[in-house]
Amino acid sequence: MQDWSFETLHADYAQALKIDRLIYDSETEHQRLRVFENERFGRVLTLDDVVQTTEGDNFIYHEMLSHVPILAHGSARRVLIIGGGDGGMAREVLRHADVEHVTMVEIDAGVVEFAKEYLPNLSQGAFDDPRLDLVIADGAEFMRGDGARFDVIIVDSTDPVGPGEVLFTDSFYGHARGRLAEGGILVTQNGVPFLQPEELRGTMRAFKALFRDWGCYLASVPSYAGGPMAFGWATDGEARRTPVDVLRRRMQAAGLACDYYTPEVHRGAFALPGYIRRLMP
Ligand code: AG3
Q1: Atom 11 in ligand 1: which residue has the minimum CA distance?
Q2: 38 in helix, strand or coil?
Q3: Contact 160 CB / ligand 1 (< 6 Å)
Q4: What CATH number labels 58-277?
């Protein structure tokens, strides 16, 4: 079919999005990048034909990977984002006035430049925020370093194919643990478990060996088809137990108005259906 974007991520299942208007199509040094307009989702960004984010539903993913760890932590000052070149994650993290410093490590300078120009709705000015330090580097290598520690680390990655693969290895998670401050929390993009069970299983096995409190939480993102997406959660602290009324107070104090995140959704997101719970080691 012409004028449709077919996703190539899974061997036996594909979603297609109608390309109402092709806005950009090119190869960067690392991957093929496309942006097109779809009537329902607005602008859609694909990397190697896999949907990365859309104007229409990115709020679900970005709110859940940022506000869950930040509000659970309660006093996050320093946040590290690995990946996130479109700027959507930085946008949500920077909504927290208490966050003093955000380091964002993106491997592909092309994505950032391009997102600023063709997807300004994603970053909404986040790249101009003086609290943001954008580093163009390999996230795995950055993690190996012994620089600053972070209260929250967010791995906003692609799927574990191509450049994103190293962000799903035991050694990467081990290095991430070493970069967490006391009580720090690591969260990760962990795929859609119905279609990518091994990806989640692998991460959970690694987390279990490394962290006192490990697991995952869920949210359904329409453009990541196939059921809920899993987000990995790992910490040596107690933040998972933060009660709903405390989350509510923190959310109010931060002046956050969200379209997906609520304190109740936050707590409920950790409830796992049987087929996902069975993937836990
Ligand atoms: N990165 C996550 C894309 C994963 C899509 N994968 C899938 N459908 N299993 C999103 C980047 C947004 N900042």
Answers
A1: 52
A2: strand
A3: no
A4: 3.40.50.150
84 sits in the region (left: phi over 0; alpha: psi -120 to 50; else beta) called left
∠ CA 232-124-64, rounded to 5° = 20
pLDDT in tens, 201-254: 999 999 999 999 999 999 999 999 999 999 999 999 999 999 999 999 999 999
Q: Which of 160, 158, 178, 177 is nearest to 169 (CA)?
A: 160
Please compute the mean of the pLDDT values over residues 132-142 and round it to a whole number: 96
pLDDT in tens, 31-68: 888 999 999 999 999 988 999 999 999 999 999 999 99
Q: Which of 63, 14, 4 is nearest to 34 (CA)?
A: 4
Amino acid 192: pLDDT:
97
Active site residue 48: no
Q: What residue ranges of the chain are covered by domains with CATH 3.40.50.150?
A: 58-277
237 Cα–ligand 1 center, Å: 27
Spatial separation of the C-alpha atoms in residues 91 and 85, rounded to whole Å:
11
What Å distances lie between residue 269 and 20, 119, 264, 274, CA to CA? 34, 29, 8, 14
Structural fold of domain 3-54: Spermidine Synthase; Chain: A, domain 2 (2.30.140)
Which residue from 255, 210, 197, 237 is spatially nearest to 69, judged by alpha carbons?
237
Question: Where do you find CATH 2.30.140.10 in the chain?
Answer: 3-54
